[in-house]
Structures
1.
Amino acid sequence: EINVGDENPDPPSAKIVGPSFGGPGVDASFSVDITDGSGPKVYAWTITHNSTVVASSATATIDYTPAVTGAHTVEVTVTDDAGADTDTATFTVMTDIAGTFVNDIVWLANEGVTKGCNPPVNDTFCTSDYVTRGQMAAFLVRFLGLTDDGGGDLFEDDDGTLFEANIDKLATAGITKGCNPADGNTNFCPNDYVTRGQMAAFLVRSLSLTDDGGGDLFEDDDGTIFEANIDRLATAGITKGCNPGQGNTNFCPNDYVTRGQMAAFLHRADALK
């Protein structure tokens, strides 16, 4: 793009566009946004890991399927008649996410809902760890883009915790009330693990789901306080069940939710936002 009246156009300005997180065997594509400059462009891409080049390209984009985990550096230099510009970006390949939930976790991290479980490196997701109520509040607040904290300090047992602001935002949105209804819901129990039944309720309220598909979709939640929410969650396609080998007739409402499962729930829920 040559500025009108400028006989000496500015050199190109390059900006890498692509994911910040990935997983082993998961395809990642990087492109470059270019402003200014003049004439045909020449591209020089490199992706390095521990100072070793693991991929390179001379085209406008580069596709990379990582085989090694950890931090990578993605670099591109764009050269044209007016000069050259180089941009670099960090691409972190998580170490512990191979398997069922890998694409869900990569999506979750790139959406900014969570980055990892070992900051500041954040190259581990802790896929099998259970989700606490405080962590769940943070996930949902970022997923939904909630900002109103209702004035803050809505519960007595989360003061000074990492998740207090997110908990207040979640409660202000009406997605949770607390964990001690008999005592006025003054507590949130931020360190308690979230059950699958509770998660169904959180997501149903988050997405305002109403269709229960006729109800009674699972055999092991009859009479539980979460049965209607579980049926709504399943009808929306966010969950199928917990025993796929036996036809997914059960939901396992009392089992704790893992971080990998949470990523899958939110990834499917994203289509309904």
2.
Amino acid sequence: MPGIKPTSKRILNPQSLQQWLAQLDDHVNSLAWSSDGKWLAAASISGPITIFAGKTGQVLHVLDGHAFGTCKVAWNASSTTLASVGQDGQARLWDPESGQERLRLPGGAAWVEHLAWSPDGDLLATTAGRKLRLWNGADGQLIQDYPDHSSTISDVSWQPDTQVLTSTAYGSIMFWQPDRNEPLRNLEWKGSVLVMAWSPNGSYIATGDQDATVHFWITKTGTDLQMYGYPTKVRELSWDGTSRYLATGGGPTVTIWDCSGKGLEGSRPIELKGHATFLSALAFKHHGRVIASASTNGTLMFWQIDKPKQPLLQASLGSGISQLVWSPDDHLVAVGTEAGVVTVYSAPEVR
């Protein structure tokens, strides 16, 4: 007999959660929230950097950025300085209140691609080709010009809550200290690293690799293992705030590894299936088990990983998504696209 079956399922309207939208002149190459969530910096691949009011989208400043293109932007811990690097051979430090450039720092090669502030926000690391340099973020003094790497540096990051800097190049992850010009440690592996991600507790390092694998190290012991079978090279990595879950891209499926218990070896990952094309960005909330995923056809999805069969929310932005960043308080997520769209969504309600 026909009847009506009640359901608790809610269909969320993506537009109801969209807070604001802006249009830049080109592909969004980097997005960064200030530590207090007050500002959102967006760099376009052609060079200009726009500073928005994070909650409203009001344009506060449009900075010149870098000739030939800006690669990345990042805020120091106190949000008093925005750093940027680009294809003019420079790192630049900006005052977000006035929009004025404070300092220019020579990266050592024509293309300065990566940068990373120390956890306390006092030191800035930059990479250009094989060169890794360390700067005083207040006055621009060069603290270290480390020995050239054996190949182009593919990523740089600080070990959480330490003054230890890590850099990746072909075949290794190297550990550095501000007061030493030689490596403190070297984790070797014969492969080409594309991206590196520290777990928030500093216990693990993961790398996404050119050969369609993810490499994984236990920091304390140096023990390593490899996850393979991805359809394409892996550029997307994200840890949850507890350091238990590692999300990986490398195809259309979000693959999430559980690092608790007996560890990764022999374990079966959680798989989030819904994207029709390859992933282009992943980002866990800082707290909780919600992750946002984005793909090359412009689809944005939010997932609750303990309910993996369907997303909490799905939206289409019309062009490939290049950037995906949660605000520090996890209330908002900023998205950038290849067509120059910058938009901010409220976090969907967890079921």
